[in-house]
Amino acid sequence: MVSRKIYTPVFFAIALLFIQCTQSYEPGEESVTEILRTLSSDEMRGRQTFTPDIEKAADFISSKFKEAGLSTYPNLEDFRQSFALQEVSMGSAVISLDGELIEDEYYFARLNGMSLNWNPESVNVHSLNPGDNFREKFREFSSSEEDVIVFIDPSHSDIFARYQTFFSRPNRIHSEETGNNSLFILSKTPGTFSVEIEPTIEIKELANIVGMIEGKRSDEYVLFSAHYDHIGIRNPVEGDSIANGANDNASGVTAVIELAKHFKSLSKPERTLVFATFTAEEIGGYGSQYFSKQFEPDQIIAMFNIEMIGKPAVSGPNTAWITGYERSDFGALLSKSAEGTIYEFYPDPYPQQNLFYRSDNATLARLGVPAHTISTTPIDVDTDYHQVSDEFETINIPHLTNTIKAIAKAAQGIVSGKETPTRVNTDLVD
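and the corresponding structure tokens:
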């Protein structure tokens, strides 16, 4: 007969190993602090797009995805989803109206990188007349699929000058895109004209950081996202010139990393989970735009975009608001998940600011995906937004940690396949 003393240590060792393997990871203040402090440190210098500083942030996030045990996205060698932007500027231009050259203060253009050689027979000609709505007409002409030249009546000279100041900057487009060429000239429509433009093109390399947990359903995706870029170096305020971006949006990136660790510690999810931190949000959302084109929209079940969750909302701590709450039942599902807890999700209290289409969720939302942004910051009174004062010390760590936990709990029904939010009605897209 074998002694029971031999089995007892073995039994407890196996039991301990089982407990260790099945114990889930819960976001904690110590880990949240470490991630947030690193991303918002002076060493990151504000994580501005197109600088070496954002590369430091990309390396750090990649290391955290690796530590969490995430898989790389298919066809990627590592967690970097690299892509390129073209910055297209005017270069050289010779424009004449009825035989007379016009100076550059009377025109601006949005260019796709092609050389232009236009006359009245080779391009679509439009006029913006007195009394026309400048903004509406501008959107119409600039979004045309065909090249256009628009002659703007001098009665619109004031608003023309404002638009010229902004649109004289280089046009940024993804390298695989073309788009139209649109030229706007402050002049009554001439009898004849000629346009010769040779644009200047500069290629800029960028990268999103993307990891995933493959689920049982490989064709159904749940996204957790946040942008990791910020605005970099500003004019000094009391000797401080670094806009650290602790709340905007190191707080959101911290959440994505902690959620990745949490869901990786659980059993294999029903749906495939993708964790993405986007670049270039602050300069036009180019990272999320590129990312969105790598998926079939119908396969994306939901997008949890997380933005500025480091400060309690106007409703107090342990509450968060959701943009576009009425556009799908995504928000209602999250609200229901929080019933009986200390947390509350509720509709965006700033509908007049149209925030639903001002963050990285916008591209997918326009395609019908229930893609919503979760935030907590009282943006109407926050004095640190896009300032050098947006530092680690301004963040409420317990609130941030509780918000991450609340998102993890709220997402469980969608991750498990038990809940599926309704699609965004694209007929209502702004």
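(Above: one complete record from the training split.) The mean pLDDT is 93.
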